[in-house]
Amino acid sequence: MSPNRSPEPSILLPPLSLYIHIPWCVKKCPYCDFNSHRQNGALPEAQYVQSVLADLRESRHLAQQRKIHTIFIGGGTPSLFSAKALGEILSGAESIFGFCDDIEITLEANPGTAEQQRFADYRLAGINRLSIGVQSFSDVQLKALGRIHDGQQATTAIDMARRAGFDNFNLDLMHGLPQQDIPNALADLQQAISLEPSHLSWYQLTIEANTEFHKRPPLLPVEDLLADIQTEGLAVLTDAGFKQYEVSAYSKSRPSQHNMNYWSFGDYIGVGAGAHGKISHGDTQLIERIWKTRQPEHYMNTEKSFIAGQENVSVEQRPIEFMMNALRLNQGVEALLYEQRTGLRLSDLELTLNKLRDQGLITDNDQRLQATALGQRFLNNLIDAFITD
């Protein structure tokens, strides 16, 4: 090491989250590329719970004495599982890792599987936030998206959630849907706002590989129309008091703490079929990605390993992996977080950062890593600047 060169910074262990994957759905939506499997007959709920608990126990060492900061139960359709089953998983996780006092525990819920008593039981089981997959309030659009609920069921599910005691809930809403125009997109958005969620995830439908829509693409709005929907929708959200804090996330006062941990390059343990995790190691200064076997029957096979693969995030990968998350946040992150989370010197990126400042893509504030409005508009180009050969 050169005598004038400062030592490499040390990775400081970030907050720890937990992701729990429930892989079954009533049916597979044509746009979905997540690890989800159509339900055939009764779900093996008890067997799957035991596998998740065993997976949690095997993952204990990854916490490195940290308590769980946030939990997200996703899928699939996790609301197919009973509150008793999810409560058993949460109790196991708390006994294994411990929970922070202000823990946020989110459950994804499908309006087509909503029942008043089930929501109330989820609340009693410790779940304190819901993410309700509405996608649209238009029956025509919901049919095109292959959803199992209609617009009225979506509204009813939200009312049920509120009556069950959930004052913190997100609505998932898509735009740029097949043959959608501006009035229809804004009508969806205004109806969502009228239901007074604490959080909105409003994002454009994209066609992903290995989906039914990729094999048989629907007719989607052209680019100029998509841009107009985005612009006018943002104005509607702003007028309603929702602040955009990430590319597709809006909140009045309660941003998703779980997703904030993702976007600030925090750590998370993933359990369940197909779940992914990212873990920093304070002793070795390595950052590791771990993913679990995708097929539920393999995951529940006691003779097979839960782990399908793992790899270290190389020094060359860390800058882009950090930036592709942090720069999605409208306010960015404190500059010092880069060194704390990656174990790399920010000064090594000085030439790239100065070039991006000159181009007007990141702000001149050297205390923060933050994209400008122009940088947010051309986010992919901005992030590509951090790719190293």
Provide a descriptive summary of the structure in words.
By secondary structure, the protein is α/β, with parallel strands linked by helices. Strand 7 (169-175), helix 6 and strand 8 (199-204) form a beta-alpha-beta unit. The chain contains 15 helices and 16 strands. A nine-stranded mixed β-sheet has the order 9-10-8-7-6-5-4-1-11, sandwiched between helices. The protein has helices at residues 45-58, 83-97, 116-124, 139-144, 151-163, 182-194, 212-215, 223-239, 257-263, 296-299, 318-326, 336-342, 350-358, 373-377, 379-384; strands at residues 16-22, 24-25, 37-38, 68-75, 99-109, 129-135, 169-175, 199-204, 243-246, 249-251, 267-271, 276-281, 286-292, 307-312, 333-334, 368-369. It folds into two domains: 16-262, Aldolase class I (TIM Barrel), CATH 3.20.20; 333-384, no CATH class.
Main attributes?
single chain; 389 residues; alpha/beta; TIM Barrel; 2 domains; nine-stranded mixed β-sheet; three-stranded antiparallel β-sheet; 15 helices; 16 strands; globular
